Each structure stands twice: as structure tokens, then as C-alpha cells.
Amino acid sequence: MPDRRGELRELEAALRECAPAWPPTPDLAAAIRPRLAPRRARRRGLKKWLLGVLAGAVAATMAIEPARSAVLELLGLRAVTVERRTADPAPRPFGAALDLGRASTLDLARRATGLRVMPSPTLREPAGVWVSEAPAAVSLVHRRPRILVQVLDARVAEPVLGKTAGPGVSVEPVRGGFFLSGAPHGVGYLRRDGVPVVEPQRLAGNTLLVERDGVLIRVEGRLTRERALAIADSTRVARDRP
Predict the structure, then answer these.
(1) How far apart, in Å, do the first and last CA atoms of the chain sit?
(2) Which among 183, 180, 216 is positioned nearest to 197, based on CA atoms?
(3) d(Cα 199, Cα 178) in Å, to the nearest integer?
(4) Any transmembrane segments, and where (predicted)?
(5) Which of 56, 103, 136, 201 could form a disulfide with 93 if both were Cys (CB 3.0 to 4.6 A apart)?
């Protein structure tokens, strides 16, 4: 039998002799990669362009009622409805239901009324500031606790106040004014020109009307006489004009 091992050794030796004459295999990946990059970039750009055109066409189609229904049916979404809704209205300023004039800020209220109001430090910052004229008034509405503090260019008038109190209302004299408690009640006072003003009760609870620094301070809410007086006494008011 022929010696297979010997033949293989001879073949291996022959191949080794041919190796120097055979050129090395080039790096095909490095040679082809630069050629493929521009093609891929062009394909990506074309893909983005096609997607943009498709999105625009779908948007235009969905704007038309019959076409929109057909598209939804094609996609298997016949049960889906598309609604167009307007944006929700802006929330009303805090205290709008109390009918205190127009929403404002302390600085704008000072310019409009000439009353520079510095809120009581015993309360948190007011959640709403309102301003009105005839008489000039700056109203501060506090959220927690719910308290109304008004500074009015007016004065206390016991006869007017007595007519608005009504039955079941206790009218207690305090320094510079009166404290009203008990049943729901109205509020009466005099403007600087002597015209009487009668207003409804704004918040449930009790009402304090006192004169401080030449203005009328009204404090209203669920509070005691002592608490109301402390708020009024710590509310500072200055006039920018006589």
C-alpha cells in the first residue's frame, strides 16, 4: 500500500515552497467600507424624506372627515374617535366670586387708589388682590384660613351699620369701630364724601369694621373678635396722596 503519510509531507513541503510567490490576501473590508458609507448616507436621507412626505400626507388626510374615517378603518381603528378640543379657559383669580372689583396686585392697587397697604404679618401672603373705586378699596383675600381684609377710603357710621345688621346679629363696640357676629348680616359705612354704602357679607363668619390710620379696615371670616382686632391692628396703611 502506498505511504499516505509520506505523500502528505511531500505536498506540504511543495506548498511551503510556493508561499513566497503568492501575494498576501488584501483587507477587503477596509477597501469596501469607504465606498459603502456614501450609499448608506444617501439611503438614510432618502428614508427621512419619504417619512416626512408620508407624515404630511397622513396629517392632511386626517383633517378631512371622510378620509379620516377611511384611514381609521384601514388601520383597524373604527372604534376610535378623533375630537378637536379647545384649550381649557384660564382659571379665575382667587376671590373672583366675592365681587370685589378687578384683580390686581398690591403695587397696581396703590397706583389706582393711592393706598399703600402692607398686609398683616399674622397672615400668609394673600392669594388674591382686588381693587375698586367709589370708594377706593384694596381687598386682600387669604386662602388658609379663608379671611377677607379690606382697606377702604371710608369711615364707620353707626346709624348705617345698625340698619344693615338685622335680627340675630350682635353689634359689639370696639376701639374705633364695631364687631358683628351671629346671624348673616350686611355691612354699612360712609364714603369720605358722606355717601352711605351698604354691602352684603362676603364670607361666612364675623365682621370687624374699625378705623385705623384714617381709613376703614374690614376683616371678615370665621374668627374671634381678638383675632380680627390683631389682624386690623397689624395691617399698615399709608396714603400716597391726600
Answers:
(1) 135
(2) 216
(3) 16
(4) 49-67
(5) 103
Q: Which three cell numbers stand for residue 160?
A: 348705617
Question: Each residue of 30-43: b (16+ CB within 10 Å) or e?
Answer: eeeeeeeeeeeeee
Q: How many CA atoms lie within 13 A of 177 on its CB side?
A: 27
Note the pLDDT tens digit of each residue in 134-146. 889 999 999 989 9
Give the cell for residue 205: 363668619
Pull the grid cell for residue 75.
Answer: 388601520
Q: Which residues of 194-232 are buried (b: 16+ CB within 10 A; e: fewer)?
A: eeebeeebbbebbbbbbbbeebbbbbbbebeeebbbbbb
Percent of the chain clearing pLDDT 90 (strictly above): 40
- What is d(CA 201, CA 181) in angstroms, rounded to the nearest whole number? 11
pLDDT digits (tens, 9 = 90+) for 164-219: 777 889 999 999 999 999 988 888 899 988 999 988 888 889 999 999 988 999 99
Using CB atoms within 10 Å of the CB of residue 6, give its burial: 0 to 12 exposed, 13 to 18 middle, 19+ buried. exposed
pTM beyond cutoff 0.70: no
The letter for the amino acid at 137 is: A
pLDDT, tens only, 71-119: 555 555 445 454 555 656 667 888 889 999 999 999 999 999 999 999 9
- Count of other CB atoms within 10 angstroms of residue 25: 6
Coil/strand/helix, residue 137: strand
